[in-house]
Structures are given as structure tokens and as C-alpha cells.
Amino acid sequence: MAVVFERPKSLLDVPTHYCPGCTHGIVHRIICEVIDEMGIEGDTVGVVPVGCSVMAYDYFGCDVIEAPHGRAPAVATGVKRANPEKTVFTYQGDGDLAAIGTCETVHSAARGENIVVVFINNTIYGMTGGQMAPTTIPGQITQTTPYGRDVKIAGYPVRMCEMLSTLDGVALAQRVSVDSVPHIRDAKKAIRKAFENEKEKRGFSIIEVLSTCPTNWGLTPLEAIKRLQDEMIPYYPLGVYKDITGEETK
Amino acid sequence: MLKKIERNLMKGNEALAEAAIRADCKCFFGYPITPQTELAAYMAKRMPRVNGVFLQAESEIAAINMVLGAASTGVRAMTSSSSPGISLKSEGISYLAASDVPALIVNVQRGGPGLGGIQPSQADYWQATRAMGHGDFHILVFAPASVQEMVDMVSKAFDTAEKYRMPAMLLADGLLGQMMEPVSLPELSKSKCDKSGWAADGHKFKRPHHIINSLYLQPDDLEKLVVERFKRYETVKANETDAELYLTEDCDILLCAYGASARVAKTAVNMARKTGIKAGLFRPKTLYPFPVNELNEAAKTAKCLLDVEMSMGQMIDDVKLAINCSKPVYFYGRTGGAIPVPADVLEKIKTLGGEL
């Protein structure tokens, strides 16, 4: 019997702890498909964050280091500088990357660290139960913005791809989404390109993935996808913010 | 190949850096802070010449996490800083300890708390030996008292850290870091430790994947791990203590001091001997593990102990614990960057001498 669809080999065959409707699984799968296609699992070191994806070390088949909250780009810098021939990627959520880890993110980008950063933006802290993230949209209700995010009090969200695209060390800054099949295909192309950039030593690549968090948004998985499409994509436009290769990814 | 250098006049910070290169340290990640900056500057000059990595990080926090990344792949890596910067590194040190990753941290202490001052101090003893971050753990702490010891303790610290899979600290101070003394530098020595059982350096499809991690959500799992680590600390305590005993065989007053203050205390002991007071010196070279047996040996004939520190008195806790408070322990210290002078320590010895 012909196999038409199977689990990527570098994605371990274990149950995950993610909630129903969460899009982490899709992004994990995309990364592992790319690792398999490029045949690099044996020479790849992943760095995972603190947050919902902290336990991704149990799911990725490559060697994995769990970093302190926000420090994944610094940990990845240490791995890469000590082992320039290895492939090194980080997988981080919005609280990890854009709040507590902003300094590490910006400076590893500015240095042009030759690493891949996969950034999951779901506009909320998931693991701790749904608090305001640096990416929480104005008006969005969370546990710590119970009346909706009031920009007069809590300030404005951070658009990371736009901000990082101004830095010379950045090779690729692209925002993608996993709300639909065409968008998932685009996301895979972008992540593949980021890993190829690393292989070609082009510098820092960040792929921001707009994702859902049905549990902490208080929505069903389908409603969550609709919110991503109706509220997040208009606020966080998809697209390539910087690409030093000048190639079209689509 | 780096050959042995018999005699060289070097600053403590620079000698330590050269010794680290000769201990096969491949990566240095640092951030400027007085009075350790020469160490990073020396590394910036030397590392590119020996195919090593020097990187100035954006913060102390980033630097220790770069160490965590490099050391997790089995490479010898280090960082250095001074007191306020070490506080920032405490998060990363806790993670290193919790992930059983060996690495070297150098603290060239200055006055504190807060921004404190930039003059020599020993006010981070508690931090280094008691609370180098959150959670149940210890790190190895070595206390050099000369530029030569700043050299000799580097490879010892790396070797011991790797043997027990725990972070090690060289606890120096601004005096030792900034002063120049003649030193001999060893030839290059490489790690003899096999890290293939845990290093996360790519599995090459030849082994299961390695995870460097410190998260254990089940209390039983975490407890088991911490208990295992504390059993390892018992072995460390049994095997890795080191101390210098000076004129202790017949002493009436035993001075206890480490690092720079031990140099002052030794001079005071010699001065006291000339006046007929039988003083001796116990100088721990390892602060964790604390040389308990060595101190009890040194204190055999002593009627009282005098602890001398460049702090308000921190090591004195370990001195009292080691002798189980069986003898009076007095204290003389200066803090805030002030360095005790031998004459003042001698005065204190004389006062105690009158009470004997």
C-alpha cells in the first residue's frame, strides 16, 4: 500500500500536551518536514523557550536545549558560535521573544547570528493562563486586561518583524499564518527559506507565525481560526518585511 | 601548541584569561564591568589567534546564557564579571546547575550592595556559597590568593566542574585582578572528560536525542533529581576541599581568611609571632566545599579564632559551623572597598592575646 501522508521522522511519535485546536502542532510539523527534507536532523540543535512550547524538547527528534525565559537567542548564539557547522534554531512564543527576551532577540538579530528563529504570535501568554502579551491587540480581553487592552494604560503592541527588518544583520523577516491550507503552504516555504539561509550563512532569519490559542481566547478552534483571520491578520499584516536574497517566496 | 612559560609578569585578570586558554576554554562571553574588564579585553585579543570564540554580549544575562548554549554542546566555556554583574548571571547559573552543565564563572568582586563601588571586596561570599540563584543547589567555589593561584585554579576548576557536572566559580577580588605578580603558565591541557553521554551537539543518527533541561513538573521526579545532586555534593565535600595551613601546629590564635584578606592576615601572623604571640593562619582555597576537616586540624591547639574578611563577616558562618562553635570566633573586617592593613589586624590579635 502506498503511503501518501506520514509523520515527519524528526517529529517524535509521542502525544503532545497542546490543547485541542492549538496551532503549535502544525508549526512543529512544518519545522520537522523541513529538517527531514534537508536531511539535517543529526546536526541540528533546537532551543526551546519557557511558555507553552517549553516541552517541545520531548517532540523534536534533534538534540534540544531548554533555555531560560526569553534567553533562547543567547543560548542559540552560544551553541552556534561554538559549533558553526551545526544548524541551530529557536522556537519561541510572544511573551518569551517580544517581552522578557526582547534584548536577546534584538541583539542576536543585530549581530546577524546565523540562526533560525521561529516566533509564535498568538497575542497571549498561554502556559500561565492567558495574560496580556506584548502582542495583545488593543481592546483584547485577557486575564490581566479584563476590560480590554487599554493603550492609555498598557501601551501598544510590538510588531517584531517590522522592527527587526530595520537591522542590517537580518537576512529574512517574514510574517506568515497557519489559519488556512494556502497560508500553511506559504509558512512552510518561509521556514524552509530560513533554514536555507542558515545553511548559506546569510545571517539571522525570523519567521513570525500568527497562531491561535482557543483555550485562553475562550473560543472554539474554528472560532479561533476566524479571530486570527478577522482580527490578527489586519493588525499584523502577512508578508516579507526583509529578504536579502530578493527572491519571491511564493 | 601553547608551551609552558616559566616566568612572566602579569596582571591577575590577564593571567587568568591566558590560563583559561591554556585550559582549552574555547568560548568566552563577557560584558564590560570594572574591575574585571582586562580579562575580557585580553580574551578579545587572544581568542581569535587560537581559533577560540570571544563575543561581547549585550548583557550579563545574555553572556551567561551564551555560556549555557556553548557548554551544553560539551565545549569548555566561561564568562567573567564583577559583583553586580554576577547578580544578573544568577538566573543562568541556576539553570546551568539544574541542567548539570559544567562551566566556569569568574567573579572579580567589588564593593556592594547595589552598584556599590569599584574597589576590592569579599562581600559576595554568601552569594557564591549559599545562594548563587534560586533553588536547591551548590556550585564549586575556588578562592585564589595570588596571581599564580588565579592561573592554577582555572584548569582545576574546569576539571572539577566536568567531573561532577556542575558550574564552578573562581571567586577573586579587585585586588587580585588588578595587581601584577610573576607567574608561570602551564602548557595547553585538554579536557579528559567524556561528554558524549549528555552533550547536545547533534546526534548524527547514532544515538537518541539529548535534552538539556531543568523542567520537571512532577514533584517526585524533581525531588529525585535534586536528592541525587546532593549526594554528588557529599562526594565533592569528601574529595575536593583544599586549604593552606600556616604556622598552625602550636598556634594559640588561629586567623581564618581567604583570598586577598588572607595575604594581609598572613603578614599580621608573622608580625604577631615576632611579638611572641603564637598566631597561625587557616586559608581555605575552596569555599564550596568548605575545608571543614582542615580547619579543625588547624584549630587543634587554638584557644580562639579570628576571622578576617573584606566584608561585614560572611565566611565566619562557615568557620563557626565547621568547629561547631566549640571555640570563640572573633571577627575583624573592612568593607565597601576598604582593605584591612596588617597593623590593624595585629592590634586585634594583641587585644585577643591579652584575653588568652
Give a brief description:
The complex is a heterodimer of chains A (250) and B (356). Chain A is α/β, with parallel strands linked by helices and 250 residues long.
How does this structure look, described?
The complex is a heterodimer of chains A (250) and B (356). Chain A is of the alpha/beta class. Helix content of chain A is 36%, strand content 17%. Chain A has one domain (24-243): Rossmann fold (3-Layer(aba) Sandwich), CATH 3.40.50.970. The two termini of chain A are 33 Å apart. A seven-stranded mixed sheet of chain A has the order 2-1-3-4-6-5-7, sandwiched between helices. The model of chain A has no long low-confidence stretch (mean pLDDT 97). Chain B is of the alpha/beta class. Chain B folds into two domains: 5-239, Thiamin diphosphate (ThDP)-binding fold, Pyr/PP domains (Rossmann fold, 3-Layer(aba) Sandwich); 244-355, Rossmann fold. Chain B has helices at residues 12-22, 37-46, 60-72, 83-98, 125-129, 147-164, 174-178, 219-239, 259-274, 292-298, 316-322, 342-355; strands at 5-11, 27-30, 53-56, 77-81, 104-109, 140-142, 168-173, 180-185, 211-212, 243-246, 253-256, 279-284, 286-288, 304-309, 329-333. In chain B, helix 1 packs parallel to helix 6, helix 3 (60-72) runs parallel beside helix 4 (83-98) and helix 9 (259-274) crosses helix 12. Chain B is globular, with a radius of gyration of 21 Å. The A-B interface holds A 41-45, 47, 54-55, 57-58, 60-68, 71, 74-83, 86, 103-104, 106-107 and B 26-27, 29, 53, 55, 57-59, 61-63, 65-73, 75, 77, 91-92, 95, 99, 200-206, 209-215.
